[in-house]
Amino acid sequence: EAGVVQSPRYKIIEKKQPVAFWCNPISGHNTLYWYRQNLGQGPELLIRYENEEAVDDSQLPKDRFSAERLKGVDSTLKIQPAELGDSAVYLCASSPSWGDTQYFGPGTRLTVL
Amino acid sequence: KNEVEQSPQNLTAQEGEFITINCSYSVGISALHWLQQHPGGGIVSLFMLSSGKKKHGRLIATINIQEKHSSLHITASHPRDSAVYICAVSNFNKFYFGSGTKLNVKP
User: Fold this and answer.
1) Which residues of A touch B30 (CB under 8 A)?
2) Low-confidence residues of chain A: pLDDT under 50
3) Pairing outcome for strands A19-24 and A108-112
């Protein structure tokens, strides 16, 4: 069974440019998470979806970040415009339902110059 | 104040040593998770537990709900165990992550 797929794996952009990340969760997993992880720190939740509904986006910087999960499967996370401080690894994870074991994707390492 | 605290932050051990990583939390939880992250790699879930103890190979996880404390033990450590170990807790609607313990096992 395929795991959580993310693309791209690496992205380098200049500040003020837009960037988008894509995530394909494990088939049948209703819950999808987007995290940001800075070097030497644990993951920080940005947004959680239950099917297509965003149920926790309290940590998402809504002035520049947006996310969607159309049809309750794939999800995209967008930053526009990117700032230097957005450089981090963006992780996607999915689980069968809330509280279950999460399965993480490989992450997208974003560098903003 | 972080809801999940781990200790130590960094740990160096010799191959074969018994290793303990500690996790304390301050919120009510429904489950506690131990995760492993290799350098440059993704995160893998090792254990999810809400009481007692679980064992998988050389890894053992315990939790004491009354003391709000969990430990991850590695017996007969090996260089391939070198990774960051992250403790996380989940409650009704939130996940809280510790900042991780970086383990380096030397041959």
Assistant:
1) 99
2) none
3) unpaired
Cβ-based neighbours of B40, under 8 Å, separated by 6 or more: none
Q: Which residues of B touch A102 (CB under 8 A)?
A: 33, 45
B87 Cβ partners below 8 Å, 6+ apart?
B4, B6, B21, B23, B25, B32, B33, B34, B35, B70, B72, B97, B98
Give the pLDDT confidence score for residue B1 in this predicted structure: 63
Angle subtended at Cα B37 by Cα B45 and Cα B84, rounded to the nearest 5 degrees: 115
Q: In degrees rounded to 5, what are phi and psi of residue A86?
A: -85, -10
CA A15, CA A111: separation in Å to the nearest integer?
9
Distance of residue B40 Cα from the nearest chain A Cα, in angstroms: 9
CA distance B43 to A98: 18
For the four alpha carbons of A23, A75, A87 and B34, in that order, the dihedral sign comes to negative
Q: What are phi and psi of A70, to 5 degrees?
A: -70, 140
Residue B22 · residue B4 · CB < 8 Å: no
Give me A32's structure tokens: 């999808």
The owner of tokens 């004491």 is B64
| Residue A43, token pair as written in the block | 């993951």
pLDDT single digits (tens) A53-69: 998 888 898 899 999 99
